[in-house]
Design goal:
The protein has helices at residues 16-30, 55-58, 95-104, 116-127, 152-173, 188-196, 211-223, 262-274, 294-313, 332-335, 347-354; strands at 3-8, 33-37, 50-52, 80-83, 89-92, 109-114, 132-136, 176-181, 201-203, 229-234, 278-282, 318-323, 326-331. Helix content is 36%, strand content 18%. The chain has 2 domains: 3-150 and 292-335, Rossmann fold; 153-289, 3-Layer(aba) Sandwich (Rossmann fold), CATH 3.40.50.460. A hairpin with a 5-residue loop joins strand 4 and strand 5. The strands form 3 sheets. A 7-stranded mixed β-sheet has the order 3-2-1-6-7-12-13, sandwiched between helices. Strands 9-10-8-11 form a 4-stranded parallel β-sheet, sandwiched between helices. The protein is built from 11 helices and 13 strands. The chain has 361 residues and is α/β, with parallel strands linked by helices. The longest helix is centred in the middle third of the chain and has 22 residues, at 152-173. The chain starts with a strand and ends in a 7-residue tail after the last helix. It binds 6-O-phosphono-beta-D-fructofuranose. 6-O-phosphono-beta-D-fructofuranose binds next to loops.
């Protein structure tokens, strides 16, 4: 008999509920108990935020977006920002309290589902002695240690569908449509959706872009009697000699800046330099919402079941990962060491170039 804690941390991604579903079912079959901690680690700070998860609580959730446990990307237990009684912002470390509560409540393992930030927190808890198993999640697909993270396929499908729809309106008005998609450090969503959605230009963080090249591609389209263009830009893409554009809205307790604005910047440059009617839109959190695709559901359930097998085998401080076609495990320390970037020598990048897509260089 084991008592398992499960949590979801960081930005949500389609497939989180499918992981929870698989963990609860795999534990039930072993006669183990599962508890969910709401909003990351809140359940280990306040027992009201802890929920017992039985089969009836997870029925049908595998097909739904979001997370039944809630999530946060502001809750680093090692550096929690609070406003003290004097109204000042104070950073406190509540990790000891969390670890003590974890032990006092008799948990045998914590299955932490998260992206790089949440898995780094999980690694630090593992270092402190908490038996942890990580599950990789992020729509950005930027975790090096796994072939894929769940959520990515759904985000790409959403972005591709949006591009398909934008083609007709762009064509009707002879316009340039600039679409900003997510991707802080890596251009996976931009590249996959841009190729699949017939973009003329794809700008990714891995290739600093030259606006002259971007505009040359747009005007070159006209030589071929194509009077419109679709430009996909990842939120973390940077112009040559420029810098990442953020919203300048610092959020209390959040370590990373809130990105956004590069799409509008690219659109205004295109308008200025080509004189073309140009519009921009930000797909934003649409990419994080909705029902997971079949690929993401299956991957998420495989991750959940594999995580429970790791617990059974007593392999802690590891993250489950996809090494196609197999499930494997990697030490959490390796999992968070570096970000997975788009390989500029990969066939996907070659494909983009060969079908005439401008990558801004
Ligand atoms: O890491 C996933 C991600 O979707 C990024 O692409 C994006 O920059 C970030 O989360 C946005 O997070 P939020 O708006 O939830 O703070």
């Amino acid at each position: 008999m084991k008592k398992i804690l499960i949590s979801t941390g960081g930005g949500d991604a389609p497939g989180l509920n499918a992981v929870i579903y698989a963990v609860v079912h795999a534990c039930y079959r072993r006669g183990w108990e599962v508890y969910g901690s709401r909003s990351g680690y809140k359940g280990l700070l306040d027992t009201d935020e802890l929920v017992r998860l039985g089969l009836e609580d997870v029925e049908d959730i595998y097909s739904t977006g979001g997370t039944i446990l809630g999530s946060t990307n502001k809750g680093d237990p090692f550096a929690t920002a609070i406003v003290n009684l004097a109204g000042e912002i104070q950073v406190v470390d509540v990790s000891d309290k969390i670890l003590n509560n974890f032990k006092r409540m008799g948990f045998d393992c914590h299955i932490a589902i998260g992206g790089d930030g949440s898995l780094e927190i999980a690694r630090r808890f593992a270092e402190k002695g908490m038996p942890v198993v990580g599950v990789p999640k992020t729509i950005d697909n930027d975790l090096e240690a796994t072939d894929r993270t769940f959520g990515f396929d759904t985000a790409v499908s959403t972005a591709t569908e949006a591009l398909d729809k934008l083609h007709s309106t762009a064509k009707s008005h002879d316009r340039v449509m600039v679409v900003e998609v997510m991707g802080r450090d890596s251009g996976w969503i931009a590249l996959y959706s841009g190729i699949s959605g017939g973009a003329d230009v794809i700008l990714i963080p891995e290739i600093p872009f030259d606006m002259e090249k971007v505009c040359a591609k747009i005007t070159n389209n006209e030589l071929h009697e194509k009077d419109y263009a679709i430009v996909v830009v990842a939120e973390g893409a940077v112009a040559l000699g420029g810098q990442v554009i953020d919203k300048g809205e610092g959020e209390l307790g959040r370590s990373e800046v809130v990105l956004g604005g590069v799409g509008e910047w690219v659109a205004s440059e295109v308008r200025l330099r080509t004189g073309k009617d140009t519009r921009s839109l930000v797909l934003g959190h649409l990419q994080r919402g909705g029902s997971p695709t079949t690929f993401d559901r299956l991957l998420a359930m495989r991750f959940g079941a594999a995580a429970v097998r790791l617990v059974e085998d007593g392999i802690f401080g590891h993250m489950v990962a996809l090494a196609s076609p197999h499930m494997c495990s990697v030490p959490l320390a390796d999992a968070v060491k570096s970000r997975k970037k788009v390989d500029l020598k990969s066939d996907k990048v070659f494909t983009a170039r060969e079908i005439g897509v401008c990558l801004g260089d």
